[in-house]
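Need residues for this backbone.
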């Protein structure tokens, strides 16, 4: 499996990662064997705006279906 071990490093955490030390600036993990999903988290700190996906929702059935599937998967955990 490609890239079985993965890390996210924030500023100042590269040395800790290289030395194998725990750090608040490093998040590490391993791929779960057989897992076939990727998760993307968008913290809302970018240039998002209300309605930004509306055009894509209208134009792309693939996007629309994927977003619906995400909504169904999250439904037990949120009250949207």
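Answer:
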């Amino acid at each position: 499996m490609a890239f079985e071990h993965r890390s996210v490093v924030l500023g100042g955490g590269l040395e800790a990662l290289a030395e194998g030390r725990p750090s608040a600036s490093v998040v590490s993990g391993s791929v779960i064997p057989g897992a076939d999903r990727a998760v993307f988290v968008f913290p809302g700190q970018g240039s998002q705006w209300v309605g930004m996906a509306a055009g894509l929702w209208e134009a792309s059935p693939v996007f629309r279906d994927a977003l619906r599937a995400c909504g169904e998967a999250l439904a037990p955990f949120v009250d949207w």
